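Feature request disguised as a bug: please show the residue count (119) next to Protein-export membrane protein SecG in the output. Example input:
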Amino acid sequence: MLYGIIVSIITLICFLLIVVILLQPGQKEGLSGGLAAGMAGGASMGARRTADLLSKTTSILAALFLALSVLANFAIDRGGSGQSTIQQSAMENVDPSEFSAPSQTQSAVPEQEDLDIEE
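Example output, currently without the count:
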């Protein structure tokens, strides 16, 4: 339930982020200049202030997107299992009698004889 809500908010933020990025001015002009000039009165907000507002909005939306993406990872319902599907299927196919206790296995290091050196 919580995961679905977070994913819905992330989707909304993605849509808003696309709109805000497309509204930002290009190298010479953009929609922000047209929006500022088209406002009633024309002097309430200049093109530079609109670009600053869009830039700050982009930063805030990107930070929210990142934070909610990390939060969504922790909100996923894992069904009570701490193992992945691959780990579970591997454990079903393994015969426990194939493994022996470490004390019953031979050492990988060859044994060396004690040599007494006379001085």
